[in-house]
Amino acid sequence: MCSVGLETVDHIVAGCSALAQTDYTDRHNQVASIIHWDVCRHFGVPVESRWYRHHPDRLVETDDITMMWDTTIPTARKIKANRPDICLRNRKTNTCLLIDISCPADGNIGKKHAEKLAKYSDLRVEISRMWHCRTLVVPVVLGALGTVHTGIARWLDIIPGHHNLQHLQKTVLLGSTRILRKVMSSF
Ligand SMILES: [Zn+2]
Questions:
Q1: Residue 3, in any domain of the structure
Q2: Is residue 90 assigned to a domain?
Q3: Number of domains the chain contains
Q4: DSSP letters of 61-91?
Q5: Helix (DSSP H) and strand (DSSP E) numbers for the chain
Q6: 67: domain range?
Q7: Backbone φ and ψ of 67, nearest 5°
Q8: What's the gap in Å between 178 CA and the centre of ligand 1?
Q9: 110-168 pLDDT tens trace
Q10: What CATH number did the domain enclosing 32 receive?
Q11: How far, in Å, from the CA of 7 to the mean position of ligand 1?
Q12: What is the CA radius of gyration of the chain?
């Protein structure tokens, strides 16, 4: 597709620049929107009864929380990585979670996890200063072929709501299957 990488399964499901903006983004957004849907339900925000009909609003607000979806966080200091997938501020617990989802090649899950923590560390510091709250970066990294880090459950537990790891993995796998099928059938 990109005429650059070797046509391995890993390349097709997670490394091809020709698929990144479209197919990988769709798969990523689907996983992210499931997490968003579960957080909404946890806080009693009215949502569709089925997760696959859920289209996250840019801004969700209740008495306790403000949740931003794929939105640039305005900061006084200029910060490069300022647009996490989900920014969840909880005024009741005085915390803020910067949740970022990624579906890399399975061999890269550890690296990607560390990358996400580093990427949003400036934003984390800035938000804790601006909003005077405990702020945490929460990477949710699911390998394109289903591999997850042993600590993934602990990270999911930090996010309010019930987050079913198997469901998230299945969603990634179905996305990857769709991508493989599309590439195979295009030749
Ligand atoms: Zn390629």
A1: no
A2: yes
A3: 1
A4: E-SSEEEEES-PPP-SS--S----SEEEEET
A5: 7, 5
A6: 9-184
A7: -125, 125
A8: 16
A9: 999 999 999 999 999 999 999 999 999 999 999 999 999 989 999 999 999 999 999 99
A10: 3.40.91
A11: 7
A12: 17
